[in-house]
Design goal:
Blueprint: E1 10-15, H1 19-22, H2 31-35, H3 37-49, E2 54-59, H4 71-74, H5 76-79, E3 104-108, H6 119-125, E4 130-136, H7 138-151, E5 155-164, H8 178-192, E6 195-197, H9 199-204
Parallel strand pairs: 1-2, 1-4, 2-3, 4-5, 5-6
């Protein structure tokens, strides 16, 4: 049985919302990620109000670390240090959603945030059962992290309005636009892996602010 969502057993994971993924002309520019920023800004603020833990996963490679693996073969901009390189402006998280004191920032070196990181240990320390997934790209780093979470027996919610993906050119099966890909990724996730919900549903329902106010604060 899926445990009820509450700030005591749930965490928000925000994936790869750095300038290298969001800025105009960035190596991994995701226009759709910029478009959903207002909704993500609202939801992060709401999570802070109800004291729900926020974990930022940020892809970063350090010069000389020799930690790129097969990413170097698939992504020349990573291989050549032109993207997600430590010490560059590109690894800065978008300022309007930047981590604040009390938030958790974890650097990753693979598409999944569980590989070679302290993410699993951190979630267990927080007694997290439910994970809310946000960020870019839905079918890559977000889903890779979500799938690994499901394999570790977390209950995972893909947030439909604060995850985003770019379209993909024709690799032999036809070009795919971003809206179609997003629907496919979310539908596949809902069928095989977890649940899909919007931030509005959660803020009006199980994570409604008034449920977590103290009795001294009027409604």
């Amino acid at each position: 049985m899926t445990p009820e969502l509450s700030p005591d057993n749930t965490a928000l994971i925000v994936v790869d919302m750095s300038l290298d993924f969001l800025q105009v002309g960035a190596p991994f520019e995701t226009v759709e990620g910029r478009d959903m920023l207002p909704a993500l800004i609202r939801f992060i603020q709401h999570c802070r109000e109800v004291k729900l833990p926020i974990v930022y996963l940020n892809h970063v490679h350090y010069p000389g670390a020799n930690d790129k693996g097969t990413l170097a073969d698939r992504f020349p901009v990573i291989r050549d240090g032109k993207a997600v390189r430590a010490g560059t402006e590109g690894v800065t998280i978008w300022p309007e959603i930047a981590p604040r004191p009390g938030d958790i920032l974890i650097e990753k070196i693979r598409q999944s945030g569980f590989m070679y990181t302290r993410l699993d240990a951190t979630l267990k320390e927080l007694k997290v059962l439910n994970i809310l997934m946000a960020g870019v790209s839905t079918g890559a780093c977000v889903e890779s992290t979500a799938r690994d979470a499901v394999s570790r027996d977390y209950f995972v919610y893909m947030l439909s309005d604060v995850t985003a993906t770019s379209g993909i050119p024709d690799y032999g099966w036809g070009e795919m636009d971003s809206a179609t890909l997003q629907r496919v990724f979310l539908t596949n996730f809902a069928y095989h892996l977890g649940k899909v919900a919007s931030t509005e549903e959660l803020m009006a329902g199980p994570l409604a602010t008034k449920q977590y106010r103290t009795s001294s604060i009027p409604d």
